[in-house]
Amino acid sequence: MSKRVLIVVTNVGHYDDPSHPTGLWLTELTHAWHVFEEAGYDMTLVSPLGGAVPLEPRSLKFPNIDKSGKAWLADPAKMALLQTTKSPDEIVSADFDAIYFTGGHATMYDFPDSEGLQRITRELYERGDIVSSVCHGYCGLLNTKLSDGSYLVAGKKLTGFAWREEVLAKVDKLVPYNAEEKVKERGALYEKGLIPFTSYAVTDGNLVTGQNPGSAKETAKKVVAALGRSEG
Question: In the chain, where are the structural domains located?
Fold first, then answer.
C-alpha cells in the first residue's frame, strides 16, 4: 500500500488590506509534491473551506518561481486541483499517513481556527502518524490541542517563518500577528537557521517542520524518512 499524504492549502487571497494580495506560496506545494511523488505516495489537497486556492503573486515571479512551479502552472490538470480542494469534513484522518501544511501569508488567517483541520491533525498525531508544515504552515498548528487539552506544539522542537524573515520580506506591517512569538507562547521550542531564507527543517518525533519556502524540499524528505521509520 502506498503512503497517503494530506496536503493543506489556503482559501485566503489577501491580507487585512484587500489591496495587498497573498495566497499559497506555490513552490511550497510543488517541491513537496515532487518529493512525495518520487516516493510513490498518493496526495490529496484539502483547504479550510474546500474549493479554490488563490496563489501568492510574489511566488510566481523570479526568483521565487522555478521549474517545478512553472510546470505546475502550465499543467491544466494540476491547476484544476487548486480549484477543487476537499474540505475538512470530507476527510477521514484514518485514510492518511501524514498531513503537510503548506504556507504563504494567507495561511495566517484561515489555518489557525479551522476546527476541521485541528481534528484531523490531532487524530493523525495521536495515532503516531506524521504532522508536518513548512513556512507559515505552522500557523495551522498554533491552536491545535491534544485530547488531554495541551497544545500539540508544547515542548516540541519546531521551526517556521521567522519574524526576522517577515521584516526582511517587508511584510511585518501587513501580517496579522507574529507567528514565531505565538508559537513560543504555546510552549514550542522554536528553532531557526543562522541565515534567513536558507533551508532549515526540524524533526521531533512525528512532528516535522520547515522554516521558509526554501525548506519545502528538505521538509518533505524528512517526512518521507519519518514515514519510512514508522514502517520499521
Answer: 4-231
Name the nearest CA neighbour of 97 among 128, 122, 119.
Answer: 128
Task: Kindly report the backbone phi and psi dihedral angles of residue 111, in degrees, each rounded to the nearest multiple of 5, phi listed first.
Answer: -80, -45
**What b/e readout covers 216-232, taking b as 16+ CB neighbours within 10 angstroms?**
bbbbbbbbbebbeeeee
Please tell me the distance from the alpha carbon of residue 106 to that of residue 108, in angstroms, as a whole number. Answer: 5
Is beta strand 4-8 parallel, antiparallel or unpaired with respect to 157-158? unpaired
Task: Tell me if 158 sits within 8 A of 204, measured CB to CB.
Answer: yes
Question: What architecture (CATH level 2) is domain 4-231?
Answer: 3-Layer(aba) Sandwich (3.40)
Residue 11 neighbours by CB under 8 Å, 6+ apart: 47, 48, 49, 50, 51, 52, 53, 54, 106, 110
Q: pTM of the predicted model, to two decimals? A: 0.98
Query: What is the four-CA torsion angle of 30, 35, 41, 45, rounded to 10 degrees?
Result: -20
What are the pLDDT digits (tens) for 115-164? 999 999 999 999 999 999 999 999 999 999 999 999 999 999 999 999 99
Say how far apart CA 10 and CA 129 lie, in whole Å: 22
Residue 65 has pLDDT above 70, yes or no: yes
